[in-house]
Amino acid sequence: MAYTPHTDDDVRRALTTIGVDDVQALFASVPAELRDPSLSLAEPMDEVRLLDHLRDLADADASRGPNFLGGGVRRHFIPAVTRHLTFQSEFVTAYTPYQAEVSQGMLQATFEYQTIMSELTGLPVSNASMYDGASAVAEAALLAMRTTRRERVVASRGVHPETRQVLATYLDALGATLDVVDLGGLATPVPADLADAACLIVQNPNHLGRIENLEPFAEAAHAAGALLVAAVDPISLPLLQAPGEAGADVAAGDGQTLGVPAQYGGPHFGFLVVGERLIRQLPGRLVGQTSDVDGRRGFVLTLQAREQHIRRAKAKSNICSNHQLTALMATVNVAALGPQGLREVATGTVRNAYALADRLEREGFDVVRDGPFFAEFPLRVARDPNDLRRDLHRAGVRAGVPVPVEYGLGPAVLLAATELTRPDEVDALVAALHAVGAGRAEAVR
User: Fold this and answer.
1) Looking at 312, 333, 354, which one is the last position of a domain?
2) How far apart are CA 14 and CA 22, in angstroms?
3) Model confidence pLDDT, tens digit, residues 233-256
């Protein structure tokens, strides 16, 4: 089909219908300085010079060297087979597998993904992945609102601040209420008032790294007729109690730590896993296993609760696609590592995180901890956290995600360790912290 642009008459009739004089009027709400900004561009380059320039830019973001960044994204071991299989052309070019007869490979891989997420979370029904962890948690809240017919969501301040921002955006459009429960120390106290709440959302480990005991939250939520949504780090689940076993109704979160590189903050994928009674409220789509007319095993899309498949008014979500390739990457990675490998990744992460905290305390730094943690912890510092992070980067060490002011720790940063953290990298971090004058911050009482 040939592409036919809008004619002048098409544009005139559209503007008349809308009720504006010209196309520029459609952009009046955008500040003038953003509509036509002045750009300072370098002189054009030939192909050889341009490629050299791009390589120089890539080298400026060296990915090797000591890395203690956390706050939701961490580096973990990803075997070579994960990338090799994920980027086979059959997977890279695959989209939503509408035609089952030509999409069996992607459908089977997605079915395996759902099985993995169900086993990790201890809940029976996983959808075929979401955009990211923040939108998955927000969709979990909407699911709880539909189920309970309530319009109030209660979330721990331990839930990632960016996740709460996305959650607030979703709820604001619906006129729903979001209440935030302050932490007691680094952990979440069980809320006293959940009487009209659709759900309670608790992150484990929380944004400050503290491990939460989910069982009391499940008991309190259920006593009030609410659901418990557990926002979890999936790589912690080989060691920590599964959300389903703790009584959670929904498990949601970001799957980056299961085998997706920390690539500029994304793309990642979100996961959403529920108890069987909530299956009809699950957004997105499911892949089911069936048999063909000859009795051979096959896979199909089923229970497709999105607007492309059912009446818009009946859709549970307007999600039109998802991060299927990154979910596949995690599936391949988990299969490559196996149960024992996953447990070794989690165990090595905990061991190295505690070793890092102990070393920093011996060096005189103010580590903040009031209970068990998994991969990261706060460190009070004597300087502005953003300036400190830049100086550490200049010293060749990636570390120091600033802790938001809302947590009341004063100037502080998050430090993370994983199973990949080596003793010489810890030495480099300690030396850099001393060199840039991180010091011991005055404790906040």
Assistant:
1) 333
2) 10
3) 999 999 999 999 999 999 999 999
